[in-house]
Design a protein that fits this description.
single chain; 304 residues; alpha/beta; Nucleotidyltransferase, domain 5; 6-stranded mixed beta sheet; two-stranded antiparallel ribbon; globular
Length: 304
């Protein structure tokens, strides 16, 4: 049995996304947790709070807006690192889907949320399938009023009952409709927030995410050939026949030398000349320096 904890992350402002030409990002992510690790992870976070001299119910988040960790930069860094280390040590894995929203201009906000949820559901389902496990999905309560939550839950119910174009529903795979609760009540939803937000920040090119890069790579799921790209991390858009594809970012963000698809038994060496970011990562080489030439390879957005 696996418990899957889901959260999302948004980087809406251009100054939150240093990678030139990428634009605002919206992500959905999940951590997949063996059932016998639930108590163990909670115990480790209780010890972590004590070691950081924090109240027992302190909520850990990538970007705490308030509470005991507000502006406690050193404690925040130590907590992030410890949470990721504990997760990997306990066999927890993560999957994250990141959408560059201005690169899919035909999608409105609701379409983006629905498609991202579908992509995440597919990756969670495949993870459970390859592990031979069933799962229960638990999400952080979506923002908005009760009507927004009901709408979101209706979308998740459609997935768990009918699957997607690529993933058929299995009665013994995902056992219940998606459940929701508050992240301040559940340590593993806080881990989902951290993993999703940190991976999104890494894709954005944030210097604040770079210290956790290796820990995130340890956590993200891999395919049968050992690659994270397309499995533990999906980028949208990723049409391999389009110059607008973001697949080269697997090279710059994950340091992977190829993009592989196990289902079709094919692979493409990275960086690929026909895709965005073919000649550089789109980031300043030094703080204040001009962006690298990769940003110039990003074409104007096209319809999805």
């Amino acid at each position: 049995m696996r418990f899957v904890f889901i959260d999302d992350s948004v980087r809406a402002a251009d100054d939150d996304v240093p990678r030139e030409g990428l634009g605002p990002l919206h992500a959905y992510g999940a951590v997949v947790v063996p059932h016998d690790c639930l108590a163990a992870y909670a115990d480790r976070l209780a010890v972590l709070r004590t070691s950081l001299d924090l109240p027992p119910k302190t909520e850990f988040k990538w970007n705490p807006g308030g509470g005991p960790l507000r502006k406690q930069w050193d404690k925040q860094r130590r907590a992030r690192r410890a949470m990721l280390e504990h997760a990997s040590a306990l066999g927890i894995t993560a999957v994250v889907v990141v959408c560059a929203t201005t690169h899919v201009p035909s999608w409105d906000e609701q379409k983006i949320k629905l498609e991202m949820l579908r992509y995440l559901y597919e990756r969670v389902s495949m993870s459970l399938y390859y592990e031979g496990e069933s799962g229960v999905l638990i999400a952080d309560q979506p923002p908005g009023d009760r009507r927004d939550e009901k709408r979101w839950l209706a979308q998740t119910l459609e997935l768990t009952e009918n699957g997607t174009q690529y993933i058929a529903p299995e009665p013994n795979r995902i056992l219940l409709p998606v459940l929701t609760t508050r992240s301040d009540h559940v340590d593993l939803l806080q881990l989902a927030d951290l993993a999703t937000s940190a991976v999104t920040a890494l894709v954005a090119g944030s210097r604040h995410a770079e210290p956790y890069r290796d820990l995130l790579l340890d956590l993200l799921a891999r395919n049968g050939r050992g690659y994270v790209g397309g499995t533990g991390l999906k980028l949208v858009p990723d049409n391999r026949h389009s110059p607008h594809s973001l697949l080269n970012l697997f090279h710059w963000v994950l340091d992977e030398d190829r993009y592989t698809r196990i289902a079709t038994n094919d692979e493409v060496r990275l960086p690929h000349a026909g895709w965005a970011y073919a000649t550089g990562d789109g980031l300043p080489a030094r703080r204040g320096a001009e962006p690298t030439s990769g940003a110039a390879t990003v074409p104007e957005a096209e319809s999805a």
